[in-house]
Design goal:
By secondary structure, the protein is α/β, with parallel strands linked by helices. Helix content is 36%, strand content 22%. The protein is built from five helices and seven strands, in the order ββαββαββαβαα. It has a three-stranded mixed sheet, covered by helices on one side. The protein has a two-stranded parallel sheet with strand order 4-6.
Length: 132
Amino acid sequence: MYQTLRYEKQENIGILTINRPEALNALNSTVIGDLEQAITEVEKDAELGALIITGEGHSDRQTLMGKLPSRILAHALSHNIPVWLLSGAITDAPSLLAAGFSRLLPITPPSMPLEEALKIETARSNILRQLQ
């Protein structure tokens, strides 16, 4: 369905994962197009309570310089929708909170080796643990 994304739904939570490991999940016009299409389709799902957009990575003040989370934040804030930032790791929390993120959730425990964190089941478990 998408060239650069994986989508799954667990109960009432949708999870969109950017899947371009060969490019370190960098955004390009194909990813942006896939995200726009996926979000449009997901908005039609009346059962969905939340949507997580994720990819391997780290969030810091550079996240606010046009990266996907900052675009999502701007769009959501213009509609008075709170935004939680889930990321592999998070630094510069005061900058991210000041920009408008409601909550910051680092997915990967600091002591977890990257090799383990990148496993799909581990990542899924880490995300769901943060949401409980």
